[in-house]
Inverse folding.
């Protein structure tokens, strides 16, 4: 499965990437919102995992853009910090499928990705 | 008065020389500082590229938690790796905020195994407040519970930052039991710190807060204020009498918080207790009493509210009418009758509240 990962923390992004590659996924990782949006349009993934707070374009903009580019269903998992419940709710309204609150477990993320991908 | 022409030339040379030396010292110090910062930045950049890659692999692996683990040479203890080790501590803390479960446990194990805990303890023992505060932060973020007793001794530290970090640390270690520091706190605890601690305690079970009564009677007004907030938030009915006593405290801020807390811990007599205090209170606290009554007034409070309809302050009139119409059985009729009397004040009030209620 091709996954677009948008996370600005270099170490967290790298760690998630390694874990998901181990699970057999192809990862396109971005540190900035605008890069993620560009990738979304030029190279549409099967799933998007995005942090809410990103530089240059927010996670909500990415969730919102998924609908516009999708000629196929793209699943979206939102990563949020504690106390961002309102934004998560907004993300669900915009079409997010699942969310995880930081700090989260990599194993749990892996399970949720599998579940959403229907494997 | 000395005119410029009277200044001795030698004196001018001396002043000029002093001025040039001062400028040179400032320039030299700035240069050294910038060089240090640039060096630190360069080292951090070098470390970042290696450390992030190294740690991200470790966090996703099931590596054995034993002596087979070897700390990389660029992170080994020693002065030459000071910047790299501090970068490692910062990254471990930042990562721990983001990752839980197996990865979270790996982070703590690595912190201990690489001897980074010793670096944090050295900072904690430093006489400089900013090192001490940073050391405390690192130790509680890395869940070093064996340091709890030592850190707890600083919860009343003369430096506000050290004090705040210590208080946050003991709560991180012991939850509500950590609040025991309030028994002996004599120094200030600002509103921001109170908010932070309350936020920290939110997901935990408060139990019955046995020392609450002690804190409500403490000599430190900040402890009393914080205890009032706790009593209200966790609806600690057993301290009702203490809260009522605080309604007569000489400090306005404490009385205001006592009014707010009373709404949460009070009983059927609370509205009349508040009404008795109304005449004695400042305009701000009177407003707080009226806001409180809006959620708890009954028909028993009607006579008092009707007297407020005659108040010279339109804001008080509006608030009283609002409470009558929302909380009392025939309150709306009474306000309406008043509105039919000569003058258009009550009529406007009545219509305003009706439109509010219709929203």
């Amino acid at each position: 499965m091709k996954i677009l990962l948008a996370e600005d923390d270099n170490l967290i992004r790298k760690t998630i990437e390694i874990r998901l590659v181990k699970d057999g996924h192809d990862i396109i990782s971005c540190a900035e919102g605008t890069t993620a949006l560009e990738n979304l349009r030029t190279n549409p993934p099967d799933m998007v995992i995005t942090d809410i707070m990103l530089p240059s374009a927010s996670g909500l903009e990415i969730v919102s853009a998924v609908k516009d580019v999708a000629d196929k269903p793209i699943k979206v998992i939102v990563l949020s910090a504690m106390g961002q419940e309102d934004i998560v709710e907004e993300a669900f309204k915009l079409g997010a499928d699942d969310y995880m609150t930081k700090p989260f477990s990599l194993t749990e993320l892996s399970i949720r990705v599998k579940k959403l991908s229907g494997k | 008065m000395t005119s410029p022409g009277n200044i001795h030339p030698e004196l001018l040379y001396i002043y000029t020389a002093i001025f040039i030396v001062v400028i040179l010292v400032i320039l030299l110090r700035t240069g050294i500082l910038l060089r240090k910062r640039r060096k630190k930045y360069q080292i951090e950049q070098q470390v970042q590229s290696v450390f992030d890659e190294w740690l991200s692999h470790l966090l996703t692996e099931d590596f054995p938690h034993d002596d087979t683990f070897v700390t990389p040479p660029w992170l080994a203890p020693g002065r030459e790796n000071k910047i790299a080790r501090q970068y490692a501590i910062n990254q471990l803390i930042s990562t721990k905020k983001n990752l839980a479960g197996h990865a979270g446990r790996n982070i703590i194990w690595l912190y201990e195994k690489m001897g980074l805990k010793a670096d944090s303890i050295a900072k904690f023992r430093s006489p400089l407040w900013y090192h001490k505060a940073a050391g405390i932060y690192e130790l509680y973020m890395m869940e070093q519970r064996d340091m709890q007793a030592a850190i707890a001794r600083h919860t009343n530290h003369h430096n506000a930052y050290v004090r705040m970090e210590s208080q946050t640390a003991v709560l991180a270690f012991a939850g509500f039991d950590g609040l025991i520091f309030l028994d002996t706190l004599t120094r200030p605890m600002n509103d921001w710190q109170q908010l932070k601690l309350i936020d920290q305690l939110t997901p935990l079970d408060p139990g019955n807060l046995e020392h609450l009564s002690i804190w409500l009677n403490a000599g430190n007004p900040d402890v009393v204020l914080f205890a009032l907030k706790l009593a209200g938030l966790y609806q600690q009915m057993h301290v009702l009498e203490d809260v009522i006593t605080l309604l007569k405290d000489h400090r306005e801020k404490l009385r205001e918080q006592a009014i707010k807390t009373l709404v949460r811990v009070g009983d059927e007599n609370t509205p009349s207790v508040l009404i008795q205090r109304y005449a004695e209170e400042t305009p701000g606290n009177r407003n707080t009493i009226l806001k409180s009554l809006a959620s708890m007034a009954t028909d028993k409070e009607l006579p008092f509210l009707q007297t407020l309809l005659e108040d010279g302050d339109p804001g008080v009139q509006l608030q009283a009418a609002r409470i009558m119409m929302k909380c009392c059985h025939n309150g709306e009729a009474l306000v309406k009758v008043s509105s039919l009397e000569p003058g258009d004040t009550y009529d406007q009030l009545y219509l305003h509240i009706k439109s509010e209620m219709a929203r």
